[in-house]
Every structure is written in C-alpha cells, then in structure tokens.
Specification:
single chain, alpha/beta, globular
C-alpha cells in the first residue's frame, strides 16, 4: 500500500533519512522503531506528503504520490501531537472530520456513533474534549483517523503517555483495522507493543534502515550471529547476552546502542 524507495531527506547539514526503503502491505502492521532523532517522524511526514524527499520516491500503491488529493483521501493519520479540538465535543470532532471527507450528514453521524462505541467514548459523546483525560484524548485521536475508513493508517506514538488500560484498548482497535485490509505504519518506543502487535518491524537509526523482519526473524538472526561476551568490545552497544535470552529489546539495543538520546 505504501512504498518508499531509496528515500533521502536532509535538513541543512543533517541527513534525517539516508536511502531508506520500506513497504507496507494491505492488512499488515509495520512497526517503525528507533531512538529519538532516528528519522521516524520524518518518515511519517514524507508518507503523508507534508514534506517531499530530496531523492527517492514515495507512493501510495495504485494512487500516486502522497501529495495528491486521491492519496490523501485514502490515508488516516493519528499524529503524536493530538489532532482534535478541545472546544468541540467528541461527537462534533468526528462529525466535522466526516464532513471534510465528504460523508453525508446521516453517514457521518452514523460513523461517529460507531467509532465512539469502538473507542469506548459513547457515554462521553456530548462532552467537550477539554475535560477528557489523556487516555480518552488518545482514543479519540485514533477514532478521528478512522472516520473515512482509510486504506493506509499512519500512527505516530499513538499510546504515548496513556494508562495501561487505554494502551490495551488502543492496540485492540489497531488490530481490528487490519481485519479490513488496511495497511498500518506504527511508530513506537514500546518494545512490548511491537512484539504483540506488528507483523514486521523496521529498526532505523541516523536515517538508515538497520533491520527489517518479523520479531521472530530478528530474534532468530541475533541468536545465529551471537558471539561470546569476551568478543564484544563496543562500549556504546548493549552488553552481550546469551543467545537463549535474545529478545526484540536486545536486538534493538545491539543495533542502536545504549547511549541516551534527547
């Protein structure tokens, strides 16, 4: 559904993405993992057409570049910075977006009701969003991305700062979307989310793709290439583990290091 081929993007002297190639298939959840500054947000911005690549190509399969009207009509985006209106009610937020996407009055009212029920906010439909908790706002933010039944869903840290109950609810909702053959690009810092949710995981750092496989494939690859502790001398990388204790988190730390990022 989404194709990124040899995409490069720089901001002045800083290269945010360096010949990055990714694809997200219909019905697939592709997790995008990386430290702060790895290029995740730039990848999302390119995918939705907010910025254009310096080199390479970004396309929505069968539609065209993400800057086209047709491509944007088939995308749903839940950004890390909430894209909902505090002064409107939950229902008003969803119905407004439904109108912008061309749904009929009855159609957008029905869709808003369906989504409010899906994200567990049907009993708060008439309340202004400013009174919502962080978890409730995150759930509404996801509902807003689903109003027009998009074929490509781009989720940038959709569970940031929410309680465990809201996180579980959000993950269940994302899983339900792929049952409708939607493709999902999902950025997260939570390894357990990627393990439970994603069909494949891409690990990036300094704008480069370091690894791309299923969680099982990434862990298996580490086991196969694991070396004795004595041979590991790189101080910026994670300490070695026995192959039997390999996990996605260990793979991630071995590839991106343990140095803190701001």
């Amino acid at each position: 559904m989404l194709r990124m081929r040899e995409v490069t993007k720089s901001y002045g002297s800083v290269r945010a993405l360096d010949a990055l190639s990714l694809r997200v298939e219909p019905g697939e959840i592709l997790g995008l993992l990386g430290p702060n500054g790895a290029g995740k947000s730039t990848t999302i911005a390119l995918a939705v057409g907010l910025i254009t690549p310096d080199a390479g190509r970004v396309a929505i399969e069968g539609v065209g570049p993400p800057t086209s009207r047709a491509a944007r009509a088939c995308m749903g985006v839940a950004p890390q910075s909430l894209a909902i209106y505090d002064e409107l009610t939950a229902r008003e937020n969803l119905e407004l977006l439904g109108a912008l996407y061309g749904l009929s009055r009855s159609g957008r009212r029905a869709r808003a009701g369906e989504l409010l029920d899906l994200v567990g906010l049907d009993d708060r439909a008439a309340d202004r969003v400013r009174a919502f908790s962080g978890g409730m706002k995150r759930r509404l933010n996801l509902a807003a991305a689903l109003v027009h039944r998009p074929k490509l869903l781009l989720l940038d840290e959709p569970t940031a700062g929410v309680d465990p109950q809201s996180r579980l609810a959000l993950l269940d909702i994302v899983r339900s979307v792929t049952s409708e053959a939607a493709a999902v690009l999902y950025t997260t810092h939570y390894m357990e989310e990627a393990e439970k949710l994603c069909d494949r995981v891409a690990i990036i750092d300094h704008g480069r793709l370091l690894a791309l496989d299923t969680v099982e494939g990434l862990v298996r690859s580490r086991r196969e290439h694991s070396q004795p502790t004595a041979s590991r001398t790189e101080p910026s990388h994670a300490p070695a583990d026995t192959p039997e204790n390999a996990s996605l988190e260990r793979v991630y730390l071995e590839l991106t290091g343990t140095r803190m990022r701001d």
